[in-house]
Design a protein that fits this description.
alpha+beta; 5-stranded mixed β-sheet; 10 strands; binds copper (II) ion
């Protein structure tokens, strides 16, 4: 409601995260507004007046305490609602790892992103892999695993349109997933202060439909570029489109 009006929901879990944002904004925002309104209206209502002596109230008597207890009950209930919803979404996005159609490697360093796409064989770490700098190509409606690495310091792979954010930690390969649902060009940004060039660490995400993506893979694979294997790329395109 609030987020998707400024940023498209381009992954399968984007709407779940937006819903969570909306619920939190509502359940925290409304009590905040009520409390602020009461706070300031009491300040003005009971401000210093000539001839009216100040009363000292400890606030521990039942008649005063009950207003705190009464407010506690809905706030605790709201907390439980937020925690239950958040754990559910967290489980789907971060804990669960659905089976992938394809895997990409994402390598962060000061201050650029390297993306390794599997070539026409759809297997990573083979001779036909396509390596790009600051440009990630993926196919729509395809479930991807990403293998996230950092070469030097902490970075963070942030794809706002996917509502995806994951820290990259040197020495570790972190596996996660996303499934693009919207074709187009979106931003990627490092979301961890990683040095003086941190702000210069954006990248582009290009989501293509499957046929377009297969064509891009076929065109850019180092092997097909070298051998000019038109037949193979055509059959690969059919294979990817049939998935
Ligand atoms: Cu960075």
């Amino acid at each position: 409601m609030i987020l998707n009006s400024v940023l498209p929901e381009a992954s399968t879990y984007a709407a779940d995260i937006d819903r969570l944002f909306d619920v939190i904004t509502l359940l925290v925002g409304v009590p905040f507004l009520i409390a602020s309104f009461l706070f300031f209206s009491f300040i003005f209502r009971f401000k210093k007046r000539e001839g009216t002596p100040a009363k000292y109230i400890t606030g521990t008597e039942h008649q005063y305490m009950k207003w705190i207890h009464r407010a506690h009950v809905p706030i605790l209930l709201f907390d439980v609602i937020i925690v239950v919803m958040a754990v559910n979404v967290w489980y789907d996005v971060k804990q669960d790892l659905p089976e992938a159609n394809s895997t990409v490697r994402v390598i962060a360093q000061q201050w650029a992103w390297t993306f390794v796409h599997p070539g026409p064989d759809n297997v990573l770490d083979t001779a036909d892999d396509i390596v790009t700098i600051n440009e990630l190509h993926v196919a729509k409606d395809t479930l991807y695993h990403y293998k996230l690495e950092a070469l030097d310091v902490l970075h963070d792979f942030s794809v706002p349109a996917f509502r995806l954010k994951q820290d990259a930690i040197p020495g570790r390969v972190i596996t996660g997933w996303f499934e693009p649902t919207l074709a187009g060009e979106f931003g990627i940004q490092c979301a961890e202060i990683c040095g003086i060039g941190h702000g210069l660490m954006p990248a582009r995400l290009i989501v293509e439909d499957r046929a377009q993506h297969a064509a891009w893979i076929a065109e850019n694979s180092p092997l097909s570029v070298a051998a000019g294997v038109e037949d193979e790329s055509a059959s690969e395109r059919t294979r990817l489109a049939a998935r």
